[in-house]
């Protein structure tokens, strides 16, 4: 949680605080969307992927593997950010309950909780996609290595 949000939280400006939390979640959603577009450029139908991977050279494989590693790193960074937002959300729910603000709590639970869950699900799904693609690239590397040994 950054200092601006922390100071809002300490001043008990709950509605402004909730708006800031929501804005942070929206920013993270946009960043994740960019990452997902990168991943979609990487992942094509399985048949196409197989054909593409069969034609990869050793340097292509290394480049694709590096891209996958970078995308995985980016996803992990986003996952950490989402986890921070989830903690922030849970802390806010407690604060709202303590201040008897049921309307804000209802809005927060409907909007934020589902967004966080969706973001985490998307990260998990895309991480699996990248891992699958990377395994195919690594398999291609092994095939090339084996072919050279013969």
UniProtKB/TrEMBL annotation:
Domain of life from the UniProt record: Eukaryota
Entry protein name: Uncharacterized protein
Native organism: Caerostris darwini
Organism classification: Eukaryota, Metazoa, Ecdysozoa, Arthropoda, Chelicerata
């Amino acid at each position: 949680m950054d200092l601006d949000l922390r100071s809002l939280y300490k001043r008990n400006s709950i509605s402004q605080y909730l708006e800031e939390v929501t804005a942070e979640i929206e920013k993270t959603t946009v960043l994740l969307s960019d990452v997902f577009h990168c991943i979609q450029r990487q992942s094509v139908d399985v048949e196409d992927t197989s054909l593409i991977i069969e034609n990869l050279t050793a340097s292509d494989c290394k480049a694709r593997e590096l891209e996958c590693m970078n995308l995985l790193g980016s996803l992990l960074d986003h996952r950490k950010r989402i986890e921070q937002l989830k903690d922030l959300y849970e802390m806010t729910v407690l604060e709202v309950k303590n201040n008897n603000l049921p309307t804000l709590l209802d809005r927060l639970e409907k909007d934020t909780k589902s967004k966080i869950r969706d973001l985490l699900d998307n990260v998990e799904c895309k991480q699996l996609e990248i891992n699958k693609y990377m395994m195919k690239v690594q398999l291609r590397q092994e095939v090339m290595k084996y072919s050279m040994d013969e």
